Every structure is written in structure tokens, then in C-alpha cells.
Amino acid sequence: MIRAGIVGLGKMGLSHQSMVNAHPGIQLKAVCDTSGYVLDVLSKYTGVTTYTDYKKMLAEVPLDCLFVATPSKYHTEIVELALERGLHVFCEKPFGLDPDTGFRLADIAERKRLVNQVGYHYRFVGAFQEAKRLLDQKLIGDLHHVRIEAYGPVVLRPKGSTWRAQKSEGGGCLFDYACHAIDLTNYLIGPPVAVSGTVLNSVFSSDVDDEIYSTLQFGERFFGQLATNWSDESYRKMSVRLNFWGTGGRINVDRQEIQIYLRNAPQTADGFTKGWNVRYTTELTRPVWFYVRGEEYSAQIDHFVQCIETGATPLSTFRSASDTVLIAAMLRQDAQMPRTAIARGAAGVVAGRGAAAPARPKSFVRSLLDRF
Amino acid sequence: MDRVLFGDNQFFGVNHMSEEKARAQAMRFQEGGAIIQVLEDAYAEGVKAFMCTTHERMTEICDFFRANRDKYPDYVFYPCMPYAHKYANAAAELGMLGAVRSFLPEDNKLGALLRGGMSLARQDVEGLARLLIDAEMKMFAGLNTPVIFLQNVATDFLLGLGFDEAFKIFAGWVRERYHAEPAFITMNAPLLQRRLQSAGIENPIICANINKIGFRMCGGMQAYEELIAAGRCRLVAMSVFASGALPPREALEYVCKFPQIESIVFGASSRRNIAQTKQLIDELTHR
To answer: Taking CB atoms and an 8 Å limit, are B162 and A236 in contact across chains?
Structure first.
């Protein structure tokens, strides 16, 4: 039986508690939060041991693993202490706010051979896993474009009192929301080598960004566009969608379904035909032992347990999460750079017949790469 | 309970198969009138029980049936609470306690005290739960609500925590205040049944996915079939078509072969589909 503790009982922490507690391979030993009310209720009605100081909890309760679901800015110190004590760690995303610290923690965890996982749950969605399988086998040929979109209703009015609306606490759409889309992209096709033209814009928030748009480069002839906006009320909940264009066809994928367009009938035994092929979540989702809010949330916890038991490397590690935070940091830095834009009416822009198209500078790719 | 219950996912942009379809439905049912039209069609086909989320948009549907009681005298609502996204979105914006406070009634003495943080500090979970239930039930005043459901996200969250007392609080208040049967929606029916039984809630109404391909039947199909056979709860089968993955006849043949399943809930947008499903269930039930 794996002995577990949880630090941070917000929306994610409580949802983890429910699933961890229901897992037959885990024994939940203690939880920690700063809200006395939540702790009192949990202690009274579920009998769990509670703490308001995680250091005290780690010192007093013998544990094998720790789940960290505090606001992002506290991730580092808590994870570091847990690793020091030799605990396997499951940390919520984005995994800190600074890639260097993230990579340092990854080094420590790997050196100590501790299972380290980050809660990028989209990696556990059946449809995205199927997309990964198909992209890995180059079903749609060489990729030349990807459109990555994430929309949802998180910040819908100027006033927001939680940490998500505060830059100093690690709030903002980039680190708290866009990271899901970035991480999923990294998982599916690897991280971009460069980013450019990034816009971090505020819609309602006064202190943080609410939308991010950027051009990502994955290869010499492979570009992508990222669009995320957490102030979109037309979505019932967060929606992440990726569209891939390749020389052999196209893949559109979201949580519910994967649509595949193939220019030619493939040689594989998957039963795909030329033209459109659609696979739904009902056939792509593997059953879980306990369901609260989506199979992927349960599956990632079960995966963590299995990695502890077998010593396998998780699908989402401190290292892969730090790669994601690194891309987020690149986006933030790019957004602060002076814009190179062609203004309407700018001198030297010749429109109309006979005008030569401006040549793309030879060093375009190089100059992008050099910026980082 | 009625044999056939009408569900509401299609009205509120919920579709487990496709976001595009969900959006198209959200557009079609933007006006309450479009929802009412479908409910009237369902009624005409003999589907007279509406199992509906306590979504704020239900208010105008309730108003309609209150105003037309003589036309639909035997119409019943089975409210399903809470509408989770309302709480989840509020929690993201206001924090946990802020969200709870924001849904408490203002025109109630205890509510006012709770809003001020009074009995939150006293850990009066039961008082708080009652107020939240009352807030969700407000829109159904004067309508017939013989069964009241706890939504699966709440049921399963509490089930995982081991917060079994909450089920007793819910069941107790639903019986006492609304003279209704407490009911529970879940994705983990075999586990829930065992826990409700040990909490002293005998023969509860449980609504769960029951379909031929085992979609979202946590604990496995065998455990579900044993649960059905044991007859220790009153079952409502939902997601019988597994979000459209199964053809209607094949799907309903599976569910109807269990006489212990009391009701079947399904959602549809066209009168033709409603009629077809209702007739199929009738035919397979009386076989």
C-alpha cells in the first residue's frame, strides 16, 4: 500500500483527494491546506488527518508520495522538500514558473530515482493518445502546419479575487491555461524550436494576460499557430483542439473525437480509408477504476501509482513539464520584444501588378533560433 | 418512477461525441421556446417525466409548466443538482468558500448569517447543505418533483472522499422538505450502492450508465450486471446508446433484457427520434 499526502485543497487538490482516497493501491494518510474550514469539515466527516503546515506534515507523517496542488508559485519549495525526503511526487501543472528551477528539480528526482509526474491530464485523453500514435507512424506524412487552440470560460469579468488573477501568484492565461495546449503539443510532436510574433493580451484582467497568440516553429518547413483565450464564455468548459496538416492528409483532434483525412488509403491494418475517418471517445477511452470528472484525471493518478510500483517513467514528468514552462517563458519573453510589423502605408511597400514580392531573408530561421 | 424519462443534455450543449454537434445544439436551443417545443413533443409521445439539471435556463421552462398546469397536469420534473459548472466556474473566480457563499439565498436569515461566515465557522455542514439544496429547488416551486437527484460529479466526488454523511444529509432533507425520493447519479454504481447501504440508505434510486459496450461503467460490466441482478437498488439506466456508439435497437435490447431496471432516461431533439425510442422501449419492455 502506497502512503500518500496532499498539499493544497483547492479545486484540483480536492478532486485528487477524492480519486486518491478511492484508489485501492493508495492509503491517504494526511492532507494539508491553509483553509481551516475545509480541513475541519474533512477531518470531521472523512476522518483524514489534517495539517496547516506542510513541513510539519512531512516531518510527522511517514509517506511514500506527495500530491502538490497549491497555487503555482509554491510548487518549487514544496516539491524540493518532498524530494529531499525521498518521496515520489505528483505536482499540478504548470510545474513552477521558471524552467531552470524545473529542470533542477527534474535532475534531483531523476538522480534519486523518484517517480515525478505533473498533472498535464490531456496526455491521458484517449483521443489525444490516438493522435500521438498516428502522428508517430506518420499517417499523414510530413507535417507542415499545426493549429493549436484552447478556449474556455475562466475570467469573464474584470473583478477576480483568486490567485489566478494575480501575476505574483503565477496567475494568467499563459501559465495557468495555455500551458495545457503547449504541453499537449510537446507531447504530440515535440516542442517548437522557436516562437515569434507572440501577443499576450488582457481582455478583462488588470494584472494578467487573458489571451495568447503566437507563431511557433517546429522545423525548417513546419510552422504552427497557437491561440488560447480563457475569457470565452461560449464554451461550457475548457476546450483544446489541434489541427495538423501533413503532406498525406490532415488530423483534427479534441477530447471527444479524432477526425482523420487521408489523401491515400494507408497500408496499415487500422481500417482507415482514403478520405475522412472519424474515431470517437467512446471507442478510444480505456475504462478507469473510479470516475469523478473525466477518465483522464483518474488515469493519470493510476499511472502515477503504477510508475511507483514498477519504476517506469511517467508519461508527464518534471522534465517534460519544464519543457512546457520553458516554451511559456519563451512566449512571454517574445511578447515583450519590440514588434517588427509592417504598418499600413509604410514606405517601400508596393502593391499591385508587377510589384516584386519581398524576398524572405535567407537567415530567417537562423535569426529566430538565435533569439533564444 | 415512469419507465421512460426525458434527459436534458441536448438542450445545454452537452454532447460526449462531438463539440461541433454540441455547439449546433446550443444554437438550436438558445431560446426557451425551442426546448419547450421538444418537451411538448415528448409529452405527446407519452414521455411525461423530465430529468433536468438545475441549470439557470430551466427557470423559464418551469415558468411555462407552472402557467400551463391544466394542459400538462401529470407532468413531473426530476431535478438533478447541482449544475456543477456553475460552482466550478464560481470557484475559479471567487475561491471555494466564495463560491458557496455566492449561491446562498440572501432573503433567508441563516443564509445571511452563512454569507457573513457565521455558520461556516461553526461547521454547520447540514445547515449549509440544506440552504444550497433549497436554492437549487427554488425554480421548481409549485411543480411536481417526486424524485430529486444528486448529480454524478457531486455524488462521485463525495463517494471518493468517503463523505458518506453527505448522502444522508441530502436524502434526509429531500424527504423531509420536498417529500421526494432521494436519488443519486453516478459513474461508479456498484461501489455507490455498497456505500449507501452501509450508510443506512436502503433501496436507493441510482442512475448510472448502463450500455452494451460498458462505456463509463466503472467497476466493470460484470459488477454492474451483478448489481442489477441483486435488486438492492432502483435503477435508472442512462447513456444506453453510449453517446450514439450503438444502434438504437441493439442498445435498447441490452438494457430491456434486465427487468430489474426500472427506468430509462434518454435525450433527443426531434419528435421522430423521441417517438422511435419510446416505441422501441415499449415494445422491448412488454416482450
So the answer is: no
Contact A44 B123 (CB under 8 A): yes
pTM, two decimals, is 0.91
Q: Is some CB atom of chain B closer than 8 A to the CB atom of A11?
A: yes
Crossing angle between the packed helical segments A36-46 and B125-137, to the nearest 10 degrees: 100
For cell 464564455, what's the residue? A233
A40 to B156: CB separation less than 8 angstroms, yes or no: no
Task: Please check whether residue A313 is in contact with residue A159, taking contact to mean a CB–CB distance below 8 angstroms.
Answer: no
Here the cell at position A22 is 478511492
DSSP bridge pairs for B208: B186, B237
Residue A368, C-alpha cell as written in the block? 529566430
CA pair distance B81, B151, nearest whole angstrom? 5
Select the residue of A38, A153, A293 nearest B96 (Cβ to Cβ). A38
A 330-369 near B (Cβ less than 8 A): none
B227 grid coordinates: 448489481
Identify the helix (H) or strand (E) that includes residue A170. none
**pLDDT for the residue numbered A372:** 47
In angstroms, how far apart are the furthest CA atoms of chain B? 59
Q: How far is A134 from chain B (nearest CA, A)?
A: 20
Which of B33, B124, B132 has its CA nearest to residue B79?
B132
Question: Best of B96, B221, B238 to disrupt the A interface by mutation (most A CBs within 10 Å)?
Answer: B96
- A19 part of contact set with chain B, CB < 8 Å: yes
- Unique residue bearing C-alpha cell 524550436: A193
pLDDT in single tens digits along all 287 residues of chain B: 999 999 999 998 888 778 888 889 989 999 999 999 999 999 999 999 999 999 989 999 999 999 999 999 999 999 999 987 777 767 666 766 677 777 776 666 655 555 555 555 555 788 888 888 999 999 999 999 999 999 999 999 999 999 999 999 999 999 999 999 999 999 999 999 999 999 999 999 999 999 999 999 999 999 999 999 999 999 999 999 998 889 999 999 999 999 999 999 999 999 999 999 999 999 999 76
Per-position DSSP letters for A309-320, written without gaps between them: HH-PPPSS-HHH
The more confident residue out of B181 and A155 is B181
Non-local (6+) Cβ contacts of A213 within 8 A are: A197, A198, A199, A201, A225, A226, A227, A228
More confident residue, A342 or B215: B215
The verdict on a CB contact (< 8 Å) between A162 and B16 is no
How many C-beta atoms surround the C-beta of residue A357 within 10 A?
6
Closest residue to A162, CB basis, from B18, B92, B213: B92
Tens-place pLDDT, residues A174-226: 998 999 999 999 999 999 999 999 999 999 988 899 999 999 999 999 999 99
Minimum Cα–Cα distance from B91: chain A residue: A11
- Cβ of A21 and B161 within 8 Å? yes
Query: What cell does A75 get?
Result: 510548487
The CA-based angle A119-B55-A211, given to 5 degrees, is 45
**Residue (of A43, A50, A325) closest to A183 by Cα position:** A325
Q: What is the ipTM of this complex?
A: 0.91
How far is Cα of residue B172 from the mean position of the Cα atoms in its chain? 18
